[in-house]
Amino acid sequence: MTSSASGPAGPGTIPPPRPRVLAALLGTTRARVLVRIAARDQATTSDLVGELEVSAATVSHHTAVLRESALITSRRDGGSVRHTITPLGLSLLGAHGLPGARRTC
Fold first, then answer.
1. Angle at Cα 69 formed by Cα 29 and Cα 32, nearest 5°?
2. Residue 7: Cβ within 10 Å count
3. pTM higher than 0.90
4. SS (H, E, C) the chain
5. Tens digits of pLDDT across the chain (105 residues)
6. By C-alpha distance, which of 40, 38, 95 is closest to 66?
C-alpha cells in the first residue's frame, strides 16, 4: 500500500477535511445537503431549498436517499418536513473532517 505525497497522518493528528472524497461517495448535492443538516439542529426542506438554491424536488430526492441510508431522519411537522442528522451521519462527516462532526447527539 502506498501513502500520499504528504505522508500518513501520525497518531493524534487530525486529518485535513476531505469534502471532495465525501462528494465522490455521496454526490456533490447530497453531500451538501448532509453538511447543511449537520450545521443546524434540524433543517426543513424549505431551509435547504433556500440555502442550497436547488428545487424542493431535488432536496426531497436527496433527503430520501440520505434517510434510506440511515444518515438522517425526517419527520412531518405541520406543512414542513424536518430533517435531523443521525449518529451514523455524524460519524461519516467526522471521518471526512467536515462540519457537524463534533456535535453531540
1. 20
2. 7
3. no
4. CCCCCCCCCCCCCCCCCCHHHHHHHHCHHHHHHHHHHHHCCCEEHHHHHHHHCCCHHHHHHHHHHHHHCCCEEEEEECCEEEEEECHHHHHHHHHCCCCCCCCCC
5. 444 444 454 555 555 557 788 888 898 999 999 999 999 879 999 999 999 999 999 999 999 999 999 999 999 999 999 999 999 999 999 888 886 644 444
6. 38
